[in-house]
UniProtKB/TrEMBL annotation:
Its cofactor is Mg(2+). The lineage of its organism: Eukaryota, Viridiplantae, Streptophyta, Embryophyta, Tracheophyta. This is 3'(2'),5'-bisphosphate nucleotidase. It catalyses: 3'-phosphoadenylyl sulfate + H2O = adenosine 5'-phosphosulfate + phosphate; adenosine 2',5'-bisphosphate + H2O = AMP + phosphate; adenosine 3',5'-bisphosphate + H2O = AMP + phosphate. GO terms for molecular function: 3'(2'),5'-bisphosphate nucleotidase activity; metal ion binding. Residues 13-24, 54-69 have a biased composition (Low complexity). It comes from Ensete ventricosum (Abyssinian banana). GO terms for biological process: phosphatidylinositol phosphate biosynthetic process; sulfate assimilation. Signal peptide: none annotated.
Amino acid sequence: MASRAGIRLTHGRSPLLAASASSSRPPPVLCLRRSKPKPYRRHLPVPLWRPLAPRSSPGPSSSSYSTGISSPVASMSSSSYEKELAAAKKAASLAARLCQTVQKALLESDIQSKADKSPVTVADYGSQAIVSLVLKMELPSEKFSLVAEEDSADLQKDESQETLKRITDLVNDTFSSEGTYSISVSVEDVLVAIDSGKSEGGPHGRHWVLDPIDGTKGFLRGDQYAIALALLDEGRVMLGVLACPNLPFTSIANLDGHSSENQTGCLFSAQTGCGAYMQLLNEPSAAKISVCTTENPADASFFESYEAAHSLHDLSGAIAKKLGVQAPPVRIDSQAKYGALARGDGAIYLRFPHKGYREKIWDHAAGSIVVTEAGGIATDAAGNNLDFSKGSTRGHQRTNPIFCIPSVVLSNGTPPILCQISASLFLFTFYRNK
Ligand SMILES: Nc1ncnc2c1ncn2[C@@H]1O[C@H](COP(=O)(O)O)[C@@H](OP(=O)(O)O)[C@H]1O
Ligand SMILES: [Mg+2]
């Protein structure tokens, strides 16, 4: 955190922040603006994801952006991950296409329960198969390692054969309707593709990290969800892509989880040192985006999970009050929150999982780089970077990898907010010990 200008968490850390950092309990997460805040720009109704002057590296080649909808032509700056980023965008976009097809005509039979009783759909499996297949086709010469949420164990059961056939048909239909790849896959190919996601990840080498549908509950409700794909290299997130098929291209700040009549479907992408971008799904041109620059918590809106089971709403409400936030929380599912934050729809993201829950790397890897490349900061409340290097040991509860993130906050990092956050940590500790 010391290297991140503007928030002085290392030197200016409050006693409570420091106490939290040194306790055995994992500290909450903060996403804080990294640069000196600019004057506040009200985020509605004017979209904020206008192309900006490049920071350390070249940004879009053209900036004829005018309305936020007709984006400028953007060419990502060259970096060693350009090929991988293009493949990731392709894979996530195709997976989104499959998910949209399923969501349009969601059948009862498409929904199953995993061993932990969480829902899983043919779209989760189909999305994972597509991403795995596309990455392998686009990057044939690279050693392939994928840490992903789903595996095929349930699909291998006798009673799942019809479901498996349906997933295979969905994968083939998606490829043929999109047209880039003239391939036809078998059920065995699909099983292999899904199980390619069994990598353990870890601190060395390159590993793709995938949540094929983040926010499955939102997906089932017809609300927000995301296909979230990131690439780790030596334990660090180097690129991330979020496909959010139901996210309006304009601000989500007042939607409270539900999609609107406006143009929807956003693809966020970021690679380290090159900024964050947004484009309409299936449209080629991207615009550079940046986080909200509000200096006043009273003007800031904050995001949290739609599902109370995923995050303590009472606690985040109390913290938001402490911070001086006046607007009601915007509750949306999935890492679409990270995308919306990255383009300035809101200023703060609070996440307080219930006691004992351990976060998964695929629930934060892509979103965190989109936010940080848009000028935000994603850390825990002690100012520590999120650690994606611990890999996955994939225990029987599917919760082994990883780090705990009791909360996520995104703000501009001005001292008043940091002070208030230390107060919020007091509340957090209080609730956790209840
Ligand atoms: N009890 C719990 N506490 C916190 N997060 C949980 C949870 N149960 C599931 N999740 C995670 O929360 C994700 C959804 O995030 P959000 O709450 O921001 O919408 C889920 O992703 P999946 O839908 O991929 O399972 C899942 O990984
Ligand atoms: Mg998922």
